[in-house]
Amino acid sequence: MAETLTIDRVGHRGDGIAIAAQSVYVPYTLGGETVEVADVPGNHPDRRQLLRVVDASPERIAPFCPHFGVCGGCAIQHWNETPYQAWKRNIVVETLAQAKIAGDVAPLIDAHGAGRRRITLHARTGTHDLLKVGFAAAGSHDIVPVDRCPILDPALDGALEAARAIAEPLAAMGKPLDIQVTATLNGLDIDVRGSGALPTAVITTLSRIAEKHRLVRLTRHGELVLMRASPEVTIGKAKVVLPPGSFLQATVMGEETLARLATEHCGRTKEIADLFCGVGPFALRLAEKARVMAFDSDAGAIAALQKAAQATGGLKPLKAEARDLFRRPLMPQELRDYDTVVFDPPRQGAQAQATQLAASKVPNVVAVSCNAATFARDAKILIDGGYRMVGVTPVDQFRHTPHAELVARFTR
């Protein structure tokens, strides 16, 4: 049954919020709009689906992607750039305020650049054995087949076609697939997950597909199927050979922006610990001016970082160690020799490590985060331990979504 609502504002997840007897969330709407909505199938009493916009906001613009509103990748393409950027910055401002954390929040930095350089496509066999390859649908586990995605870096050209070709011989095995594609300096690097063990004939077929689509490497759960060359990315002065399925910041400009801010916050310090270092987007750049000790639980990433550091001239000593910082955080006595600690944890944050940092005497801490809520929790631990937050800079590399990166500095 249709009803008419007035949207009050856009919430932290990108949905419009209407204030009735309770808050009601309506995707793809903007503050001040009058909209016609209907119930969402299933037990979702606080959500509605948009039927039509009766009275549009003057800030509304036409989405640029034909899949917007069906594909779940983007939450916001229908909002003018200026209010959109103010909203995204305000997510950080409001999250810190709710946690009672005081500090200046700088203007949002747009770091979309040329677009996303890595994606995960999903392949599922549906009714009538129809194979769908694309992105997850908005609000469901359905797959939206896509023939193009305008937010991708041109370096990912051919990724959608290659993923479809790879999925076809695997579809008969009846398992859902996740196909991670990363753009590297010398081509597309693809890791397939979910297929299970592969018969020899299927491996042979996949090898032919990889050759046809000129993939630089194809792996299955990290196991090599074919490699035509080592997939490399540039980090600072270094060339890094990526481990299969490894994590990278979503955009080149996003990585460069976060690294620049982190480097600026390190100042002239001489001894730096880089925690949750990955393949070294901070460590390899910081080592141009300071001695660096890097830690991460991913042994493959640590090995790639060590190899890149050894092959790169002009760097200060850079050592790396595989260590699970969630279970074995660096203790205060292990932190005593560092002038600065940089930490960039996954979305769940670094509560255990922040607790040990708060008990340490490290004079300068640089926090990088992709989740304002877990950042606020960890920041509160540092502040309660005697640190002062100097400032926060939000970074938008996930344009058209509610996700914001941020970089902050703490001193004592």
Please provide a written account of the structure.
The chain has 412 residues and is an alpha/beta fold. The chain is built from 9 helices and 22 strands. The strands form 4 sheets. The protein has an 8-stranded mixed sheet, with helices on both faces. The chain has a 7-stranded mixed sheet with strand order 9-8-7-10-11-12-13. A hairpin with a 3-residue loop joins β2 and β3. The longest helix has 18 residues.
Summarize this structure as a short list of keywords or feature phrases:
412 residues; alpha/beta; eight-stranded mixed sheet; seven-stranded mixed sheet; 9 helices; globular
In brief, what are we looking at here?
The protein has 412 residues and is α/β, with parallel strands linked by helices. It has nine helices and 22 strands.
SS strand fraction: 25-35%
> In DSSP terms, counting alpha (H) and pi (I) runs of 4 or more, how many helices?
9
The unreliable regions are none
Rg result: 23 Å
Distance N to C terminus: 58 Å
- Overall pLDDT, averaged? 95
Large-scale geometry? globular
Helical coverage, percent range: 10-25%
In total, the number of strands is 22
What's the main sheet like?
A: 8 strands, mixed
Order of strands, main sheet, comes to: 6-21-22-20-19-16-17-18
Coarse structural class: alpha/beta
Q: What's the layout of helices and strands?
A:
Elements: E1 3-10, E2 16-19, E3 23-26, E4 34-39, E5 48-55, H1 81-98, E6 109-110, E7 118-125, E8 131-136, E9 143-145, H2 159-171, E10 177-184, E11 187-193, H3 200-212, E12 217-220, E13 223-227, E14 232-235, E15 238-241, H4 252-266, E16 271-275, H5 283-286, E17 291-296, H6 299-311, E18 318-322, H7 332-335, E19 340-343, H8 351-358, E20 364-369, H9 372-384, E21 388-396, E22 405-411
Parallel strand pairs: 6-21, 11-12, 16-17, 16-19, 17-18, 19-20
Antiparallel strand pairs: 1-2, 1-4, 2-3, 4-5, 7-8, 7-10, 8-9, 10-11, 12-13, 14-15, 20-22, 21-22
